[in-house]
Write a structure and sequence with these properties.
This protein is α+β, with helices and mostly antiparallel strands and 180 residues long. Helix content is 43%, strand content 20%. The longest helix is centred in the first third of the chain and has 21 residues, at 2-22.
């Protein structure tokens, strides 16, 4: 029986590992703006693109509260919030291609600061795997919604609303940070 379990575990690992190593599961950007500025600009950019904000989660407050209850003393974030949002059009296209992609709903943009790292705000979102971008028009559209290019990286006016959401969330250029 132990040999069968080890074989099954090895098979499962061999199937999952290549996918896990193929591409990072999230993308992190760094901004020199304060969290409040980035949050408000991100909300505006989401709404200007015709998407609906479902919820804003105050994650650092929850982690601080539950950490104390559980005896954890380390403060993970100075402040962390996540914006859950939805695009009826993008979601519908994505799910029509593959109903299992429901795991991507709602879309989430998380914004946080770290203790001891003053002047830096981080923006993170799920990465869309390159093979999905290449083979799925809907996932290519979702990747474009999140994509950041380093041209200017400033807040865009309503007249410039066609720009990417993450770029629109800051006033200064962002620096891409590789996933840990």
């Amino acid at each position: 029986m132990p040999i069968l379990r080890r074989s099954a575990a090895a098979l499962l690992l061999s199937l999952c590992l290549p996918a896990a190593l193929a591409a990072p599961s999230y993308v992190v950007y760094e901004s020199g703006n304060d969290l409040g500025t980035v949050m408000e600009a991100a909300k505006l950019a989401i709404q200007e693109r015709g998407m609906f904000i479902n919820n804003v989660m105050h994650l650092s407050e929850m982690l601080d509260r539950t950490g104390k209850d559980l005896g954890f003393k380390q403060k993970i974030y100075e402040k962390a919030e996540s914006i859950e949002f939805c695009s009826a059009v993008l979601s519908r296209k994505m799910l029509a291609e593959d109903p299992a992609r429901i795991v991507n709903c709602p879309f989430v943009l998380s914004i946080y600061t770290l203790p001891g790292k003053r002047g830096k705000t981080y923006i993170v979102h799920r990465a869309v795997p390159p093979d999905e971008i290449a083979h799925s028009p809907a996932m290519a559209d979702i990747a474009a919604m999140y994509r950041f290019d380093n041209e200017g990286g400033r807040f865009r006016s309503r007249e410039e609303r066609g720009t990417q959401m993450v770029r629109a969330a800051v006033n200064r250029p962002l620096t891409a940070v590789m996933p840990r």
